[in-house]
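Whiteboard transcription, Tuesday session. T.W. wrote the structure tokens on the left side:
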């Protein structure tokens, strides 16, 4: 059953007008057309990502029917957040964003964590990351698949989807997790793989807008503000940001919220 929170958001999204003019540099938001352009760029450069149509009755008329949302599957998650080294710190923005990954699981799947003001973003996101950093691709161009080796410990895996949130006018991330045995993870288990202290992001279990399933979602209320700061710092550093690069930068940011879900495990230190 959908929560009152998700119902309320659905009504707001329905009533909110579609953004027509580009404002991604000024405010960090995207028009539906810009979301599609950024998605096309991600899919072109990183074939592990693909467009999906979703359920027929859930089409959004402001997006192409064959490009309703993005998804990547079978992303490894080698360990839980509470297994990270005690005292591990994540510094962002002038050294004043420091988070310790606490061993915390919400009492209920729909618990909404406190939202604090997003700090400046600078140290951890120095430049626009190389698009190839997010392409887990074999040399022959085929999508990399998990190796079935009895000597390798089986791990959790995640399917990650990105939708366009019409109300917040930003991408929104959804998580579907699977245990070492391939069985779907319970909501409380998924929270083990989300940084609970990182910027106090809101995480809830809500209906996916394009599928008949409830999934964990990172609430997009702060996404535009964070993206705006990242873009501003890139421009200040004399690096022009194109709108089609938006999702590449966005994934870099999201990797700090999902520290153990290794969709960027091939990342190099070079831009």
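and on the right, the sequence the group agreed on:
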């Amino acid at each position: 059953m959908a929560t009152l929170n998700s119902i309320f958001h659905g009504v707001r999204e329905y009533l909110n007008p579609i953004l027509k003019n580009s404002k991604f540099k000024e405010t960090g938001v995207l028009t539906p057309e810009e979301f599609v352009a950024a998605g096309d760029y991600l899919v072109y450069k990183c074939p592990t990502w693909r467009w999906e149509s979703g359920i027929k009755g859930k089409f959004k008329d402001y997006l192409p029917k064959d490009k309703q949302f993005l998804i990547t599957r079978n992303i490894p998650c080698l360990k839980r957040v509470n297994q990270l080294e005690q005292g591990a710190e994540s510094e962002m923005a002038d050294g004043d964003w420091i988070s310790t990954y606490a061993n915390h699981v919400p009492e209920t799947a729909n618990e909404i964590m406190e939202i604090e003001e997003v700090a400046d973003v600078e140290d951890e996101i120095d430049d626009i990351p190389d698009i190839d950093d997010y392409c887990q691709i074999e040399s022959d161009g085929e999508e990399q698949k998990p190796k079935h080796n009895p000597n390798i410990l089986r791990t959790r895996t995640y399917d990650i989807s990105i939708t366009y949130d019409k109300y917040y006018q930003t991408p929104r991330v959804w998580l579907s997790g699977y245990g070492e045995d391939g069985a779907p993870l319970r909501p409380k288990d998924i929270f083990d793989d989300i940084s609970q202290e990182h910027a106090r992001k809101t995480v809830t279990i809500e209906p996916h807008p394009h599928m008949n399933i409830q999934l964990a979602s990172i609430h997009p209320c702060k996404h535009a503000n964070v993206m705006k700061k990242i873009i501003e710092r890139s421009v200040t550093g004399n690096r022009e940001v194109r709108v089609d690069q938006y999702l590449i930068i966005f994934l870099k940011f999201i990797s700090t919220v999902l520290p153990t879900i290794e969709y960027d495990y091939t990342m190099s230190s070079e831009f």
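Someone added at the bottom: Residues 32-45 form the longest helix (14 residues).
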